[in-house]
């Protein structure tokens, strides 16, 4: 708690200093939901729910020190009581903290806790803009979206960007909680713009060795494409996360999703989209269940980055014979207010 108080005091001193105020920003981002969910009670045993909730609230502090260095800090207030990890010495409350070193107009190094780049276009959106994630992005096995390390960003001809990441891997600890990590993950990303930006790409592959026995590894492959035609764009992501648990008694797990989204900005301030995700979860190479996700949404932007929305989501889970997963169809109706304000 003392560390958080000191961090808060430091942030306010920096932001309110009149000599640097013009080069620094404090941004507030979040969402308030009214959501009613039918949890398919007869099958799942879970009660239906209706409630107001704040799924996301972030504070971002960002600025420019000089022509060579920028900085970015993001605090996740839904994780304010998270436990400290002894590998990178942070908690999930400190979602990101990094320095950007611009070596020249083409090459930038990012140093610190940063976005891992996994998850295609689905994970590129701010969390407050996503009403339901696919199985691969939010399922029984998951890959960290933020991790500590370094990355090199090279931007070349016509806004083609290549990124090489060297980040913490499994953040292994001893039985007593001390750091025992001996591996670093390696990632390669390509953000592409082709045909006058009619086609955008979001490709990534991340390889993460672990401390688990027999050289077990985690890998994440994302292949995302966006096609833009006037007020309409179509996205498709292929997401594949594989984690090996090869020690005795454990099982390899795989989550794969094919995610499609059609977005139509049909009038000024008015936007609608349909999203569908066809996902599969495997244990030891054998399908355990399928999950189909449908999202229908309408958004009205009152002013820039202040959005009222109404959405419907349906998640259908179909297990194979012998699976421990329960078959169910979960439906939700959500009314939300998403916002992003520059407070200072």
Based on CA atoms alone, the radius of gyration comes out at 21 Å
Would you identify the CATH H-level superfamily? Porin
- Report mean pLDDT, rounded to a whole number: 89
Could you please say which CATH topology applies here? Porin
In spatial order, strands of the major sheet run 1-2-3-4-5-6-7-8-9-10-11-12-13-14-15-16
Total beta-strand segments: 16
Structural summary, described in words:
This protein is mainly beta. It has one domain (28-53, 117-124, 132-342): Porin (Beta Barrel). It is 7% helix and 58% strand. It has three helices and 16 strands. The protein has a 16-stranded antiparallel β-barrel with strand order 1-2-3-4-5-6-7-8-9-10-11-12-13-14-15-16. A hairpin with a 2-residue loop joins strand 13 (270-283) and strand 14. The longest helix has 15 residues, at 2-16. The chain is globular. The mean pLDDT is 89.
Descriptive key words:
344 residues, mainly beta, Porin, 16-stranded antiparallel beta barrel, 3 helices, 7% helix, globular
Describe how the helices and strands are arranged:
Layout: H1 2-16, E1 24-38, H2 41-44, E2 49-64, E3 69-76, E4 94-102, E5 107-115, H3 120-124, E6 146-155, E7 161-168, E8 184-194, E9 199-209, E10 217-229, E11 232-243, E12 253-267, E13 270-283, E14 286-303, E15 306-319, E16 328-342
Antiparallel strand pairs: 1-2, 1-16, 2-3, 3-4, 4-5, 5-6, 6-7, 7-8, 8-9, 9-10, 10-11, 11-12, 12-13, 13-14, 14-15, 15-16
Short description:
With 344 residues, the protein is mainly beta.
């Amino acid at each position: 708690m003392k560390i958080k108080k000191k961090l808060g005091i430091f942030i306010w001193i920096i932001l309110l200093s009149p000599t640097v105020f013009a080069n620094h920003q404090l941004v507030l981002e979040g969402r308030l939901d009214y959501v009613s969910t039918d949890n398919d009670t007869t099958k799942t045993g879970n009660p239906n729910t209706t409630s107001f909730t704040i799924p996301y609230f972030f504070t971002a502090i960002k600025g420019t020190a000089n022509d060579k260095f920028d900085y970015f800090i993001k605090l996740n207030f839904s994780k304010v009581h998270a436990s400290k990890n002894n590998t990178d010495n942070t908690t999930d409350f400190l979602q990101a903290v990094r320095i950007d070193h611009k070596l020249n107009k083409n090459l930038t190094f990012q140093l610190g806790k940063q976005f891992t780049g996994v998850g295609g276009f689905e994970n590129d959106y701010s969390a407050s803009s996503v009403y339901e994630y696919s199985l691969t992005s939010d399922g029984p096995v998951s890959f960290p979206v933020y991790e500590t390390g370094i990355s090199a960003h090279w931007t070349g001809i016509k806004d083609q960007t290549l990124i090489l990441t060297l980040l913490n891997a499994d953040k292994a600890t001893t039985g007593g909680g001390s750091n025992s990590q001996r591996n670093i993950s390696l990632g390669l990303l390509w953000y592409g713009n082709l045909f006058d930006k009619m086609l955008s790409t979001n490709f990534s592959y991340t390889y993460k060795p672990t401390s688990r026995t027999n050289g077990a590894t985690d890998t994440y492959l994302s292949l995302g494409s966006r096609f833009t035609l006037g007020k309409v764009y179509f996205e498709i992501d292929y997401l594949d996360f594989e984690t090996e648990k090869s020690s005795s008694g454990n099982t390899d797990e795989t989550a794969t999703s094919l995610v499609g989204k059609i977005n139509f900005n049909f009038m000024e301030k008015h936007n609608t989209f349909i999203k569908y995700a066809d996902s599969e979860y495997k244990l030891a190479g054998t399908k355990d269940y399928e999950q189909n996700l449908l999202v229908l949404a309408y958004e009205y932007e009152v002013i820039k980055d202040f959005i009222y929305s109404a959405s419907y989501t349906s998640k259908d889970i179909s297990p194979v014979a012998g699976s421990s997963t329960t078959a169910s169809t979960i439906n939700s109706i959500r009314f939300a207010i998403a916002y992003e304000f520059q407070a200072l």
